[in-house]
Structures are given as C-alpha cells and as structure tokens.
Design a protein that fits this description.
heterodimer; A: alpha/beta; 7-stranded mixed β-sheet; B: alpha/beta; two-stranded antiparallel ribbon; 4 helices
C-alpha cells in the first residue's frame, strides 16, 4: 500500500515537474549583446498558420461548438477579414531600429514555414550569424464559454512571439511573448462592421507590436 | 427542512463574509523602494521629475463559481445567496477585485526615485513637478512616462511595465530610452509563488535600477 502511494506521489510530482519544464519563459537579451559589433541579423517572420478567428475558451462539447459557431457566424466572419498588413511591416520595423543602432540587419522577404522553423539548417541558408524570428501566434477575439453559453463579451486578442537565435550554437539569446487582451469600449455587438470591436483590435495589435519592439530594445 | 435551509443560509452568509474579507488584500500599493549602491556622481544643477501617466491594463478577478458543496434545492438557494453576497461586495468594493499597477504605485515609484537622488546628492536639489513650463531651461528635467502598465494572470501574476525616460537640460537634445520590465514568471522554489504585492515591488525595484542606470549613462554622455 505504502509502495503504491509513493509511486502515485512520484508520478504526480514528475508530471508537475515536466509540465513546468514545457513552458517557454521569456529570455532577457544580455547586456553584452549591445557591446558586440559583429552581429549580422536576419529578421524574418513566420507564415501565419491560423487566420484571425474568434478563440473560444472554456469547456465545450461538439454540440456546444456547433451551436456557438452558428450564433457567432457573422462576428467570426468579420474577425477573419482582419488585415495582416501590419505583420508584414513588423520585420521591417525591427530592421530599421537595428540599423539605427549601427547593427547590420536585413529583412528576409519570404515567410518561414513552421516545418522550416524546426530545421536549424534552414536558418543557416538565410545568411548572417543571428536570426530574429517573429511569429504571430494568435489574432482576433477571445471569449469564455460554459457549454454554448458565452460568459462575457468578446475581447480583442493578439499573441506575438519574438526570438533571437544565435546560429553558431542555436542558443536563444532573447525571447519575448506578448499576449494582449483588450476589452471593447462600449457596445461590441454592432454588425456588420463592429466598429468598437475593430477599434479594440487595432489597439491590441498596436500594443503587441510596441511591446515586442520595446522588449528587444529595452534601455538601448 | 425549513430549519436546515435557515441554517444553510446563515452559514453561507457568514462563510461568504469571512471568505470575502479574507480575499481582500490589506495592502495593495508598493512600499517605498530602496537603492543601496552608490550612484557616485554629483551634478550642480536642480532636477525636476515630471510624471506622465499612461495606459493601465488591469486584470479583473472573475466571479467565483459559487459554493458547490450542496446539491438540490438547498444547494441552489445557498449558491444564489453566495453569488448575490459576492456581487454586492464586488459592487461596493470594486478595487478589491482588480489587480493593477496603478497611479498610486507610480507615485510611490517617483517619490522613491526622488528620495534616492536626494539622499545620494546626485543633484543640487530634486523635486517632483506638475508644470514643466515653470522649469528653468538650465535645470535638469527628468520626464518619466509610464507608457503601459499591464497585469495578467495565467499560471501566476505577470506584471509588465513599459516606461519612457527622457532627460533634458539646456539646449541639448533629450536623452531618451524605453524600458520594458516584467517580473520573473518562474516559481520561487518548492512550487511556492510570491504574492501580487511582492511581484509588483520586485518589478518596481528593477525599474528603479534601470532608470538610475539611465541617468548615469546620460551623465557620462554629457560630461
């Protein structure tokens, strides 16, 4: 009995430990980075896999998913139409800021596929000795559900991740994850153009971009 | 049956009151910050610290799911009472359900910065100003703009401060830096996490060090 209990305890402990390890924490850029002048940075962005969408959180069964999808069809299709032009310009913003600080930087014109992201050899072909990779992980709206019942109004949502990878040893020198949840000011349910929600989404996108840039250049 | 309901109701009200009182943190604003290292510079000029508050993105603690210890009609009534007492408490004490790095924290930060600069005699005198038009052109104007303060709660508290520092004196171009600081997300050993106020203090302390480093850099550049 005691043996069994200790096994269960050890199993639970290792599960907690492993789940803790799986989380990617933000990594601060070391101060020594700014003293070194030999950086050749390629700024790239990943291809957007998930188009802008209404992200539903909370316990939902298949039937709940179907019912809530019907109820939010018009809103979801509006969210899906969100422009991604700003994302294309983000790599360029980083390149400009790096050059302003006398660091050699170039923008990689082709989006990186998720398969390529896992292949270290791919980054080597991009040139330079470091890659600054930007990834739009989620964009659109977020809303909590209990079954098919919404628990709150949708909020604008944007998740961006940035990583600076040293190509020599594949070490991550900097990592910053930005998650912006922006409440809608006033009424949100204003079909067909949802102006208040659209404004909140614009704020969320601007805040996410600003934070990721501030995170990299903090103090410099 | 009726007696049981009455007992349940009284127990719920008492439990909710104790629960809500227990939840309310007694102290929410950061304490005065300290800076123990020697700054080691002396500028024979008056300095004025000017505070510009920005956007505060707070986290609202969601309503609790209710009391689930009892099922059936009695459970439903108890649940309804729990929810109504909680929502009433929420209405009368809204600030207790919002986690934020607020204006009070920003004010403590600025007074701490002023105190540190004063104690270490970095400038001839230091004050907090609310009107920059009255600042003499030869004095040093330290503008601190809290661009965004953001609090999110996922597995733990995450506080992010994005702050602009601008230092100007005479006709020189302003020295400008942006700082983004956040607290350590990892647990503090043995799966024990620090409280919200501790995390706010930790992140403020880091910001104070960065701002003082910024002032040092500005001084070195203007020597």
């Amino acid at each position: 009995m005691i043996k069994q209990l200790s096994r269960i305890f050890l199993f639970t402990l290792s599960l907690i430990f492993l789940s803790g390890c799986a989380v990617e924490h933000n990594v601060k850029l070391p101060e020594s980075f700014w003293q070194d002048t030999s950086h050749k940075i390629t700024v790239a962005k990943t291809k957007v896999v998930d188009k802008p969408a209404l992200h539903k959180i909370g316990g939902q069964g298949l039937l709940d998913v179907a019912i809530s999808a019907v109820a939010t069809k018009q809103f979801s299709s509006h969210v899906e139409k969100t422009s991604l032009d700003w994302y294309s310009g983000l790599s360029q913003k980083f390149t400009v800021q790096l050059k302003r600080r006398n660091i050699f930087a170039q923008t990689h014109q082709v989006d990186v596929e998720s398969k390529q992201k896992k292949n270290p050899g791919f980054f080597m072909q991009m040139g330079g000795n470091k890659v600054l990779l930007i990834e739009l992980q989620r964009l659109g709206a977020i809303r909590s559900y209990y079954g098919f019942v919404p628990l709150n109004a949708p909020k604008a949502y944007c998740v961006l991740k940035g990583e600076l990878i040293n190509l020599e040893d594949k070490k991550v020198l900097w990592r910053h994850l930005v998650e912006i949840v922006e409440p809608v000011q006033g009424e949100w349910d204003q079909p067909p153009y949802y102006p208040n929600f659209t404004k909140a989404l614009e704020v969320a996108i601007a805040s996410a971009q600003e934070e990721i840039i501030d995170g990299f250049f903090s103090g410099h | 049956m009726r007696k049981n309901l009455y007992l349940c109701a009284i127990a719920t009200i008492l439990f909710t009151c104790f629960f809500l009182v227990g939840c309310a943190p007694s102290k929410r604003v950061i304490p005065s910050l300290q800076y123990h290292d020697a700054i080691g510079m002396s500028i024979p000029k008056k300095a004025h610290i000017y505070w510009v508050p920005g956007k505060q993105a707070s986290h609202e603690i969601p309503p609790s799911a209710g009391y689930s210890g009892n099922s059936g009609l009695a459970g439903l009534i108890v649940n309804l009472m729990f929810t109504s007492v909680e929502s009433q408490h929420r209405k009368s004490n809204p600030s207790q359900y919002v986690l934020e790095y607020g204006k009070a924290d920003e004010a403590v930060f600025l007074t701490s910065l002023r105190d540190v600069l004063e104690q270490q005699h970095v400038f001839k005198s230091v004050d907090l100003t609310t009107d920059i038009s009255k600042v003499n052109a030869n004095d040093v104007l330290i503008k601190i703009y809290f661009k965004t303060t953001r609090v999110t709660v996922n597995s733990g508290y995450l506080i992010k401060l994005s702050v602009n520092l601008s230092i100007q004196t005479g006709r020189q171009p302003p020295y400008e830096r942006t700082y983004l600081v956040q607290n350590d997300e990892s647990l503090d050993g043995a799966f024990k996490s620090k409280g919200f106020l501790d995390k706010k203090t930790e992140v403020s302390q880091e910001l104070l060090t960065l701002i003082i480093n910024g002032i040092k850099q500005w001084y070195r550049g203007n020597k």
